[in-house]
Write a structure and sequence with these properties.
Elements: E1 20-24, H1 29-41, E2 46-49, H2 60-63, E3 73-76, E4 79-82, H3 84-94, H4 106-117, H5 120-132, H6 141-149, E5 154-155, E6 158-159, H7 161-176, H8 180-203, H9 214-228, H10 233-236, H11 238-249, H12 251-257, H13 264-273, H14 279-283
Parallel strand pairs: 1-2
Antiparallel strand pairs: 1-3, 3-4, 5-6
The protein binds glutathione.
């Protein structure tokens, strides 16, 4: 569990927040995952929108809450929790009904969620290349400087290496953009994952068996974002496609994903920016 300690937190006002507060961004995949979980649990929560495209997460106030500069963040009765999967596991303990982590499978689910989180930068690479497609560096130099300079730089009292990973990701993106080689490598990792999930979903309705679990939420969010990037689910992984369509139709999911379907005109803009190079072409799918 990643609950911050006192010395990590510089924005002291949050220590007085009671109840469930979530700092998040509408279009962030990890925030969507957490919001679907909160919807299914019917947990009342207070929303604090963080403007990621405006780089609010790289400003001192937010870095004083999460030194890693990432959303989502949970402040639960004054305790600050970071990392979406840890937040979900914390809330599952505090709000056990309905069960979204099957009893007795907590360690297995934790390991599977860790594996999912390890692919997050691959998702980000494909998102920036094919969905957001910014014309220049995704993070302006001034925002990155603020990111580097602010916050405690520690998580649970120790120097945070994850912040360095994030800095290097954005610096590299500013230098090279999101190259064909990176996009191909990331897409191939997802292809291997979704091949395996497709076999699982041939045998059972949900990833853990007969019941919906946090793994369905986590992978639906990845599948949804990748489908916006042009990943051909219906052709490559038909059982994943059918499962995703079923989940997207549930109100708790629909609320978080349908508003992110973009108007056709924006898709055209991406098509132009990418000079007709689709994910399918670059990945060789
Ligand atoms: N492992 C983290 C990943 C969080 C993460 O990367 N969040 C993204 C949004 S999905 C973010 O805050 N990005 C910062 C940015 O775009 O500047 C988690 O699961 O919470």
């Amino acid at each position: 569990m990643v609950q911050l300690v006192d010395s990590d937190i510089r924005t002291r006002e949050v220590l007085g927040w009671r109840g469930v507060h979530v700092l998040h961004f509408m279009g962030s995949s990890c925030s969507q995952k957490l919001r679907i979980f909160l919807n299914l649990k019917k947990i009342p929560w207070q929303s604090h929108a963080i403007d990621l495209p405006g780089n609010e997460n790289m400003q001192p106030w937010f870095l004083g809450i999460n030194p890693r500069g990432l959303v989502p963040v949970l402040v639960h009765d004054g305790a600050v929790h970071i990392e979406s999967n840890d937040i979900i596991q914390h809330l599952e303990k505090k709000f056990p009904a309905p069960r979204l982590i099957p009893t007795g499978h907590e360690r297995q689910v934790a390991a599977l969620l860790k594996h999912e989180d390890d692919l997050h930068l691959d998702l980000r690479t494909l998102s920036f290349r094919f969905v957001f497609a910014p014309p220049g560096p995704p993070k302006p130099a001034a925002a990155l400087e603020s990111y580097i300079a602010n916050g405690s730089g520690t998580v649970q009292g120790a120097k945070d290496h994850e912040k360095q990973v994030q800095i290097e990701f954005w610096q590299r993106a500013a230098r090279e953009g999101f190259t064909d080689a990176q996009a191909r490598a990331s897409a191939l990792k997802f292809r291997a994952e979704f091949d395996a999930l497709d076999k699982t979903l041939l045998k059972q309705p949900y990833l853990m068996g007969a019941e919906l679990s946090v793994l369905d939420i986590a992978w639906l969010i990845y599948a949804h974002r990748l489908s916006l990037a042009g990943y051909p689910f219906e052709r490559l992984h038909p059982h994943v496609h059918a499962w995703a369509e079923r989940l997207r139709a549930l109100p708790e999911f629909a609320k978080e994903v349908t508003q992110l379907r973009r108007p056709a005109r924006q898709f055209d803009t991406v098509g132009v920016t990418q000079a007709g190079q689709t994910l399918e072409m670059i990945a060789g799918f």
